[in-house]
Amino acid sequence: MSATAVSALRHDWTLTEVKALFALPFNDLLFQAQTVHRSYFDPNQVQVSTLLSIKTGACPEDCKYCSQSGHHNTGLDKAKLLEVQKVIQAAAEAKAIGSTRFCMGAAWKHPSVKDMPYVLEMVKGVKALGMETCMTLGTLSREQTQQLAEAGLDYYNHNLDTSPEYYGNIVTTRTYAERLQTLAYVREAGLKICSGGILGMGESLDDRAGLLIQLANLPEHPESVPINMLVKIQGTPLEHAEDVDPFDFIRTLAVARIMMPKSYVRLSAGREQMSDQMQALAFFAGANSIFYGERLLTTGNPGAQKDLELFARLGIKPEQRTDHADEVHQAAIEQALIEQKNSALFYDATAV
Ligand code: SF4
C-alpha cells in the first residue's frame, strides 16, 4: 500500500487492513506514517496543551487504570470543584509558558445540574484569554453539550480507552455504547472531539487495532487522538500490568497517524517514563501534540522547560494559534528558550 493511497480520509477500516499495518517492518511503517504526516502537517511543529484537574478523586466510575476512581485505594488527595477564578488564573499561567489549549478535567460520572453553571463560567473565562478550551467531565446529555458549545468550548475529551471487546475488562460502571452516544452528542453540538485510548492494560494487538478502528470509523475523525501509555498507579488493579514494548507503542502512534491523517495524535500520559529518544521517535511516527506542564491530572509529566529543551534539540517549534496571533505568547516561548540556552547541556538543532 503506498503512502499516497492511505493518506485519504477513510472511515471503513477493517481489522485485516489495520493488522497488516501493524505487521509492517518497523522502518516501512514509520516511513509511511511520516510521509502521510507531511502531507497534512508541518513535521517540525507540535501543538502544546495544558491540563488541569478541576475536581479530583472520588469518581464513582471504576476505570481500572485510574488513581481517581473511588473504587480503588490509591491514597490520592481529593479536591472539590475548583473556584472559577483559580482555573482562569491557572490558564493564564499556562498561556504565559506557551500553551495554546487549556484542558480541564473533572472526575465525575457526569456533570451535575448544580455544577454546570461553574463549568460554563470556566469555559468563558479561559476562552476570553484567547486560548482554545477543552473539557473532560464524563458522560454528557445532549442539552449539556449544547450549553458547553454556547459557552465557547472548543473540544470535548471522551476517551474510548480500548476496543469494545476488551472494554468490560477495564470499566464496568458504563458501557462503550454510552461513550459513543456522548461522542455523537458532542459532534451534534458542533464541538471538536478529543478521543483516544491507553496502551499497557493487558490488551491484545487486536484490541489496539480495534480501538483505532472505532476512532477512525466514526463519521468524522476526532480532531485530537491521545494515545496514552499506562502509568501504573499503586492501589489500582493495573498496578502490576506488563510493560508495553516501546516499539509497539511507537507502532500504534504510526498506525493512528496513517488511519487519521488530519488528526492531531497526542503523545499523552506516560511521557515521564519515556526517554528523549523515544519521544523523538514518537514525533517521527506522527505524534504532533503533547501535554505541557508539571502534572497530568494526577500523574507526573515532564516539566515545561524540559520539553522546550527537547523541542530545541530536535528543531521542533510549538505550534501557534493562527486565529490568535499573540506576541506575548511567542515572546514567552522565546524567553524560555533563551533561558535554556544558558544551560551547559543545551544543543540547538535549529542553529545548524
Ligand atoms: S478515568 Fe475518569 S471516569 Fe474513570 S475513574 Fe478516572 S476520573 Fe473517573
From TrEMBL:
Q: In which pathway does it act?
A: Cofactor biosynthesis; biotin biosynthesis; biotin from 7,8-diaminononanoate: step 2/2
- UniProt keyword annotation of tRNA-binding present: no
Q: What enzyme category does the UniProt record give?
A: transferase
Name the InterPro entries on file. Answer: Aldolase_TIM, BATS_dom, Biotin_synth/BioAB, Biotin_synthase, Elp3/MiaA/NifB-like_rSAM, rSAM, rSAM_sf
Report residues binding [2Fe-2S] cluster: 103, 134, 194, 266
Its BP terms in the Gene Ontology are: biotin biosynthetic process
Q: What keywords are assigned to this protein? A: 2Fe-2S, 4Fe-4S, Biotin biosynthesis, Iron, Iron-sulfur, Metal-binding, S-adenosyl-L-methionine, Transferase
**Binding of [4Fe-4S] cluster, residues:** 59, 63, 66
Catalysed reactions, as listed in the record:
(4R,5S)-dethiobiotin + (sulfur carrier)-SH + 2 reduced [2Fe-2S]-[ferredoxin] + 2 S-adenosyl-L-methionine = (sulfur carrier)-H + biotin + 2 5'-deoxyadenosine + 2 L-methionine + 2 oxidized [2Fe-2S]-[ferredoxin]
Q: Which coenzyme or cofactor does it need?
A: [2Fe-2S] cluster; [4Fe-4S] cluster
Concerning Gene3D superfamilies, the annotation shows:
Aldolase class I
Question: What does the subunit comment say?
Answer: Homodimer.
Family statement drawn from the similarity comment of this UniProt entry: Belongs to the radical SAM superfamily. Biotin synthase family.
Name of the molecule in the record = Biotin synthase
